[in-house]
Design goal:
Blueprint (H helix, E strand, L loop, with lengths): L4 E7 L2 E8 L2 E4 H5 L7 H6 L1 H12 L7 E2 L4 E3 L8 E4 L4 H10 L17 E4 L4 E2 L4 E2 L8 E2 L2 E7 L15 E8 L2 E2 L18 H5 L5 E9 L10 E6 L2 E7 L7 H11 L7 E3 L7 H4 L8 E6 L3 E7 L1
Parallel strand pairs: 6-17, 8-14, 9-19
Antiparallel strand pairs: 1-2, 1-5, 2-3, 3-4, 6-7, 10-13, 11-12, 11-17, 12-14, 15-16, 15-18, 18-19
């Protein structure tokens, strides 16, 4: 079977869905002959049948396509229905945050009978490969977080962990940018349950660079077996592996789907490892370039302005 990746790109007609084969981009709807495949979201709404159409079309002779270097890639899913972000899902990251706050290390949540927990990032936070991210004026402590993203391909409700990966269409790289100093309303006391401000902290415009494409789940049979790294201005800050997650992706989907129906095009960000700026006392500034890499997926780069 011909290997491919799914992408969104810009051409003279507007936003289009594409299949990337080797170093060329092919218009997805032209390949499959179905107009609804003209966006990645449309493709995902009919994921299994659409995949069969695409695989069959790639087995036939086709035109040359457009060289990838000549194509402007966009975030592969432009406006996900929902972005679910796993909190404190690498033990080393949880430990570095505890140390920064002067707290003892937290025990493995499994030992306490706890389940994965997530917050939601606004879909308008999504931005593109190579896009400039405008740092929010109100924040001085904007942080980086490399994360593996799972793109949902079928409605998922009350899905057991053993079958959870059957609902994943593919994987992307993501950077969960975080305005650390906007995470709390400082005028309220620490014990006040309304002190946290997750919207300001996590959902400012451009705070979710996503891409550069979707690698089909069939090409990544084990999402817990991927290296991931992040550099700021070519200095490595995060260097870890998805096997170090506290809760696996399957456990996360099981827990999320027990509360909420997951829909095609939704994205689950699976947490970030140690090496974030908050643990070092350093943060992003205008002119910085952040580059992330995830094994079997690729590289996503953005510049801060």
């Amino acid at each position: 079977m011909t290997s491919y990746k799914l992408a969104s790109y810009q051409d003279q007609r507007g936003v289009r869905a594409g299949a990337i084969v080797e170093d060329r981009v092919y218009d997805l709807a032209a390949l499959t002959g179905l107009a609804s495949d003209d966006t990645v979201r449309g493709f995902l709404l009919d994921w299994k049948a659409a995949t069969a159409r695409l695989v069959a079309s790639l087995a036939r002779p086709r035109a040359e396509g457009t060289p990838l270097a000549q194509v402007k890639l966009l975030a592969p899913v432009l406006y996900p229905g929902a972005i679910y972000c796993a909190g404190a899902n690498y033990q080393d990251h949880a430990d570095e945050m505890s140390a920064r706050q002067g707290r003892p290390p937290e025990p493995d949540p499994h030992t306490l009978g706890l389940k994965p927990w997530h917050f939601i990032k606004a879909s308008t936070a999504v931005t593109h490969p190579d896009a400039a991210v405008t740092l929010p004026k109100a924040a001085k402590n904007v942080d980086w977080e490399v994360e593996l993203g799972a793109v949902i391909g079928a409605p998922a409700k009350d899905v057991p962990a053993a079958r959870a990966l059957d609902y994943v269409a593919g994987y992307v790289a993501a950077n969960d940018l975080s305005a650390r100093d906007l995470g709390f309303r400082e005028a309220l006391p620490a014990a006040n349950p309304f002190r946290a401000d997750w919207v300001a902290h996590k959902s400012f415009d451009g705070s979710c660079p996503l891409g550069p494409w979707i690698v089909p789940a069939a090409d990544i049979p084990d999402p817990q077996n991927l290296a991931l790294k992040l550099w700021v201005n070519d200095i490595i800050k995060q260097d870890s592996h998805t096997r170090r997650m506290i809760f696996t992706l399957a456990e996360q989907i099981e827990q999320l789907s027990s509360r909420i129906t997951l829909h095609p095009g939704d994205i689950v960000l699976t947490g970030t490892p140690a090496g974030v700026g908050a643990g070092r006392g350093e943060f992003l500034k205008p002119g910085d370039t952040v580059r992330i890499w995830i094994e079997k997926i690729g590289t996503l780069t953005n510049r801060m302005i």
